[in-house]
Amino acid sequence: FLALKIANVNWQSKLNKAAHHTSDYSSTEAILRRGQPFNITLNLQTTVQPGDNFTFIASTGPCPAESQQTKAVFNLLEEDASGWSATQEPSEPGCMNFTIFSPANAVIGRYKLKLQIVSGNKVSSTLLGQFVLLFNPWCPNDDVYMANEKERQEYVLNDSGIIFQGLEKYIQQEAWNYGQFEEDILDISLAILDRSLNHRQDPAVDVSNRNNPIYVSRVVSAMVNSNDEKGVVEGKWNGNYCSGTNPLQWSGSVTILRKWYRGRYKPVRYGQCWVFAGVMCTVLRSLGIPTRVITNFNSAHDRNINLSIDNYIDISGKTLHLTEDSVWNFHVWNESWFIRRDLGSFYDGWQVLDATPQERSKGIYRCGPASTRAIKEGDVNLDYDSSFLFAAVNADYVTWIHYSNKRKERIYSDSRKIGKFISTKAVGTNCRVDVTANYKYPEGSLKERQVYKKARKLLGVRSTGKRTKIARPRRRSSVAWRQNMAQPAQKPSISAKLILDAPPVIGQDILFTLALRNLISDFKTIKVKLRASAILYTRKPKAEILQLSRSIKLGSEEVKEISFKISYSQYKNSLKDDRKILVTAVCETTQEASLLVEKDIVLQDPFLTIEVLGPTVVHKAVNVQVTLTNPLSEVVTDCELRAEGSGLLKEQLRINVARMAPMESLTVQFEIIPYKSGTRLLQVDFVCIHFSDIKGFVMLDVAPA
């Protein structure tokens, strides 16, 4: 008996990767997608005997078993019950070519492939090697199938993107480096699955469930935050980040994921919502699940899911923390594309996932997948967490004044404030696309009211008592007036508006005006209490900046404009790591309603330009010139310029900027050697302890070598 000897195995890496859309992965390993054939060639040392029988064994996970679909045993020409099969193709003498088919519902992950040869009554077994199997959005039978090629290019293969932040009236673009194809990132994504609580409790069952995008995405949503399982990112929302990195300083997922992996799975400090969403997008795209990042402006965090966010202030306009509910200026989450076998085909398509640790879902900090169709239709009883997400885009915003004698009065109820300009990056460009219509029917429409009532009924929220609903059609209002609980709202006798005199720039004074109008013919005296606070994007106050009172006399139907100033010296110590200010004015008149006016201010970035000095070609060095300006009228020291970009820089580049004179402009040059062709995003971040980061980015078209 002469056992068949294999000299080596050729995994046809280039050919298979091109066919499977995995050429971008920076790995020599065979990376393949399920539901699609791949080819391997065996170069032989001995010849095949007639009657030799070939059996392939593909296995994954720590305890592979056919019953768990983590092991498949299949012969040539006959498809195994598991859906795996192999055929022999014509070949040159001294070698054998095989085509191997995996089923479209195979478990994803790292596999071993063995070949068993039965020759007469002798059995020999050879390990042919390992390969990684991923979800396949190109395969019509895969649960993650996406029919449109441009969408697949964007949501699976694009390794950079834009995350929208800021305010509903001042939406900003922030670049993010997903880098799902960079070195180690796929291995890290698989390690994330192996570190999960589910895997530690029962590895065999966990791995067998990895054929299902619902299961995999839910595990990733729990693992991207560190709350239960020593996951990737530790969240922090109190403005003190000295024991880690300020969340605003991250520019992408690659640095974070590598830090977690190389640091033996110690959670990376610190993240806020866009960081969790950026990292989750990287992991899910690397595993082959089409994913995008979504921003919801004026996002409700409704702890008790009663569809009402109660905001309490005192008579000076100071926010009181009498409730755990809150409204964030924006909140960022993810959507992934797959079908819902558990809910039915009506709920297929975009599914919301949120890795920011806000609330527990079945005992663990995770959220989703919730079908956007379920949220839009008010099906708040459906898995997973659709009620929490329905509230995030639909809750009412109610403001109360809380007096020192514990008496409170409702001065403002707005049922249109929450869930505005829900945004994502466009396919193929950096433009903003508004996807609000995927989440709700038009505000005030009959259909929207019906959905709202249905959700309220399913949640068991009473329409009387604790939750008082202003009768629809809804009232839009930029200011608020007191409303007696038992009586209809009285018409206000004054109106007020806060107006910025000029775009606010860091390092300069902020000038704004309070415009007061007397709406009736009676003479009035108005007591104005104005307050400015540095806030986080969650609208949680960090520091008081300004507090003052004025008494204003208004004649019959008179309009008065009162100017205010927040000087740089007043805000400079409060805005070193962020640039958000909330201004509130409470206007009181005797015997009448209190009026509340609010203005969110985001200080604008100073000047930063990026210039690429020559053509960008793969493996050819090119210089980049960055011009930046110190926005302050004082010397700044110990600054750093950081640059990163997938396909352009293998690791983040850091350049020390020792000193900048007041208002000085400076030019910094560095070299990049692109290693991938196509459209690439280069990000630059100027970090300084004196003010929050100044960021910029440029798109580069890199030509092949």
UniProtKB/TrEMBL annotation:
Protein residues bound to Ca(2+): 394, 396, 443, 448
EC number: 2.3.2.13
Cofactor: how bound: Binds 1 Ca(2+) ion per subunit.
Pfam family, one: Transglut_C
Keyword Cytoplasm included in the entry's annotation: no
Active site, renumbered: 273, 331, 354
PROSITE patterns: TRANSGLUTAMINASES (PS00547)
Domain Transglutaminase-like: from-to ranges: 265-357
Catalytic activity as recorded in UniProt: L-glutaminyl-[protein] + L-lysyl-[protein] = [protein]-L-lysyl-N(6)-5-L-glutamyl-[protein] + NH4(+)
Family label: Belongs to the transglutaminase superfamily. Transglutaminase family.
Protein name per Swiss-Prot or TrEMBL: protein-glutamine gamma-glutamyltransferase
